[in-house]
Specification:
- There is one protein chain.
- The radius of gyration is 20 Å and the shape is globular.
- The longest helix is centred in the first third of the chain and has 14 residues, at about 75-90.
- The protein folds into two domains: about 5-105, Alpha-Beta Plaits (2-Layer Sandwich); about 150-305, Rossmann fold, CATH 3.40.50.
- The strands form three sheets. It has a seven-stranded mixed β-sheet, sandwiched between helices. A four-stranded antiparallel β-sheet has the order 2-3-1-4, covered by helices on one side. A three-stranded mixed β-sheet has the order 5-6-7.
- It is built from nine helices and 14 strands.
- By secondary structure, the protein is an alpha/beta fold.
- Helix 1 (about 15-25) runs antiparallel to helix 4.
- A hairpin with a 2-residue loop joins strand 13 (about 285-295) and strand 14.
Amino acid sequence: MTQWTEIKICVDAKDIDKASDIANMVVPYGIYIEDYTALEQEVQEIAHIDLIDEDLLSKDRNKAYVHIYLEPDVNPSEALAFLSERYTSENIKHNIETDTTLEEDWRNNWKKYFNPMAVGEKILIRPSWRDDYDSQGRVVLNIDPGLAFGTGNHETTRLCLETIERYLKEGDTVLDVGCGSGILAIASLLLGAGSAVGVDIDQTAVKTAVENAQINNVADRFTAINGDLTEKVTGKYNLIVANIVADAIMFLSKGVKEFMNPDTVYIMSGIIDTRADEVINAISSDFEIIEKYEDKGWVCLVAKAK
């Protein structure tokens, strides 16, 4: 009998909507929410009764829970690292555990899920500890994600890599906002970018990105910044990529034009398909959407400044 992994995330009840949106980035199905803040009202509206089980009445009304269920072949540790990073970046207090282990125990258990993988037309992503691979003429991106989200397995990362392939020009300058493991910035450098800047609010992610740049011999062209979105970024870039959540993209886009040249390409991903129109509408006054790519419920937008 196959066993699924249950991830249980505890957050303050006021943050449950945003927490569930982020959880949907990990898996768009198999999620349920425990939220008892309006227990009596909801029971009355739905069941029209006043008698409620004592165990339910004793639940902490200040806390809410997101439950995620992962299939047996899905890497739980990458999902856990991603969730923790994104909740921290959104200032959501959280506690994460699984049905078999607490958060601190999965730190070294994820390598068995990560195999060499071809992406797009030009890239082969290779785990830094794997020597049994055939590049088949592709650019080899050596990656050790550590606890930073970004191995290329997730649809949003693959969409970004494939889109970067299409739009990157030799010698381009690249800005990667929410860089995680640095995979997008480093891939850009391997594909011919002249320089790249990666920024992430998570200090662990920044450290991992620097190490991955060193592994790929592009550290001399890569700059990593620990900061919130673009608050510490300067300069202009030919290509800007943001593989983050929809709310962060809408917020970021208000100021990203100051880092763009007239012909800069702006790639946005991490957008659940049900929120794509909301994002497009929010940025439509400043940007023209020139391409839209979709994969398994996720959307990647390509835009230029108006």
